[in-house]
Amino acid sequence: MSALSPEIREKIISYYGRYPNKQAITLPALHMVQEAYNCVSREAINEIADLLELNPTQVVDTMTFYGFFRDEHHPLGKKRVWVCRSLSCMLRGGDELLAEVCDRLHLRPGQTTPDGEMTLELAECLGACDGAPCILINDELQLKVGVEEVLALAKPQGGSKS
Amino acid sequence: MNEAFEPVLLRRRGVAGSQTLAYYQQDGGYNGLQKALKMTPAEVIKVVSDSGLRGRGGAGFHTGSKWGFLPKNYEGPIYLCVNGDESEPGTFNNRILIEEDPHQLLEGIAIASYATGASVAYLYLRYEYGQCYRTLEKAIEEMYANNLLGKNILGSNFSLDVYLVRGACAYICGEETGLIESLEGKRAWPRIKPPFPAIEGAFRRPTVVNNIETLACVTHILDKGPEWFMSMGVPKDPNNPRDPGSYGPKLYCVSGHVNNPGLFELPLGITARELIEKHAGGVWKGRKVKAVVPGGISMGFLSADELDTPLDFAGPGKAGCLGLGTAAVIVIDDQTSMVDVLYNNCRFFAHESCGQCTPCREGTAWSSKILRRIRDGHGKMSDLKTLEDISNTIGIMPGTTICGLADGAAWPIKNALKKFRPEFEEYISKGQKTEMREALAAH
User: In whole angstroms, what is the distance from residue B176 CA to residue B196 CA?
Assistant: First the structure.
């Protein structure tokens, strides 16, 4: 069985015309796969490499440079919540926020709640310093957040933004 | 004069529907592009060159000159890369520009592409800006539907495709050749220069990399002319023939210990004091300033005695900072430990060093470890000398690294140890410890 669904294969192929070579589709393909499967498995890497006419090690090389992508041994939870720790947020309690959330959830940054609901991450500057401390929920920024708001996200359907 | 200043780049901020093409066009949008298309590309470059526009991303390079470095009559594709990887701590102006007014940027992209001969523009956007991504997707779709992108734009011979590219949370992708490598699907290791991207950039073709605020300025320069742009800011220093001046409006991001953090558009050259007191509501809790980051953390620190420094391209440098950077001002109050602040800075650069050049990889990692030790109460006076040695030996300026990340890592150390040295010495001699908690990553 193929690791990538026909839809994702089609989507990757639909990017061929955007760039003068196929290697440039590596990053978009990794995003598509992680978004669909919460990780990029070894099999998925091989199939991406096939579609882009690359050696799988080229895909691995790019994928592992960006700490963003997860292999199948470290899949993401349903939500991925990043807490900013850079200077503007630190000055307004970002470090405390992250430390408190870690203590209360018994998690370290990078880990996922046992029920798979939420992966907690530490972030360098998220670009929302006007609303420090800030967090990123999947790819939506949330400004001026407190501990309870982050903890609510760890509950099923908690803090749902939709 | 600032009271009378009417925002240009943020004029449509907060207006309902400001993201739509319909609103943008009825508000005078795409006039600049229409004017540009009636000129030759060389004439467009001249207009931008004459305006004195300098890049807003950090280096402050003269935009017209950057465009002018492209080879003439080049046969084959030329690329425009739009640098939307805004990641310098304290900086968030690109986010607001895109969320509020995507067409202002896209018009600038179209003008810049016409001027440089690019038929494809890649807009590299940091992953964290999901809302920006979706706003741009919609705006680009509107443009294709209205002959503002695609073949023969507005009936001219000019054709352009714009593609969005999402980053993956790596600061180094804001370095222009790191961005190009990332765009090409590789790890974002900056390239040795020369060759500069204008000669050999994306896919080994001539390439211009421009910042988002820079391109938003281009839109208005074409619409209103170079004289209008030069009516704002700080003119050339008559005593310094090498000073190109600091013209135009600038977006100042203010964060940290102020009452009203936010984005303020003002003519280049406002002082840090005026920005903090008049625009950002002053220091919070009735406290005083201890230090101010003038333009993102890689620029170093101004002390409380240096708040009258004008925040133009030349000002922060005269006060010993690296430069204006991204004009992201971070205010630090007098209750904050500079040891904690410097540790935060060093940890950032250790996390974001791409690892390609050993002096940067090791220098940023060790400076972070040394500061953690000092913060834990185990510092030695000789640590300060070691930190200074690191800060003097990593970077482009001492000639040991490929890109400027290490210079940006070194500068806060240099400034902190020069301007706030007694605080570090006292911290170490008294065996002080930080009260701040830190969560360490699992892997």
Answer: 10
